[in-house]
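Ticket #4471: structure export looks truncated?
Reporter: QA, pipeline team
Priority: medium

Steps to reproduce: submit the single chain below to the structure queue and open the exported record.
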Amino acid sequence: MTEKSIIAILNGLNRNPYYGNCIKHSISKNVELAHIWIENSRHKHSPKTFFLIKKDNEYVGAVLDMKIDLHWVTLPQHRRKGYLTTALKEAIIPYLFSVVEREELNILINELEIGTENYDNSLNTALKVGFKKVDDTNFILEENDFDFSNEELDIKHKGLSDGETEDICKELKAIAKKVSVINSKIELSLGQTPSNYMKPSLDDMSYKLSYFPTLIDDIKHDFIQGS
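Actual output as written to the record:
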């Protein structure tokens, strides 16, 4: 994703915290973990994972976790104030190492792509949080080299109300039926069973979706017990 598109997401969230398809929860005082579905993305059926950085009630920056790279952006009016560096040290990097259980983090900083000013700013941030230079564009941070003394993780999940749970169960059952209908339409219209071409089959997915609502009570029970 481009810097421009991430800035557009941040501005949208500042206008409306539930802008677009965004589901999030807090991992520290000033950082939220979010799954955001991007409509014009090539893989728009799957969410992108963002760490959203806040100052008071305003989003000031974001880090896109691409697994093989971290793409960070701070809104222009909030740059050079330390928000990104603090969020990386206190929450984002500790989360990736301790919760996601990555052994190392990699970032790519290419001056030709982002310009000299952005390169210098990103390089400065990367070095401050412990990344080491591999070559002109690649940097690496291993878990054993990271300073966890600034960690401020405070992970909070808001839970689901009974009404929200009921809506999810209804939606899952409707999707399960729709998948089953599509399976039959293909089989009876084309004379070919989709299960001969894919595993799990559409029927398998439909069954699992129809069964999942019965598990939600168990999931909610374990959530409440662990809170």
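Status: closed, not a bug. The export was complete when the record was re-opened. Leaving a note from the reviewer for reference: The longest strand covers residues 21-28.
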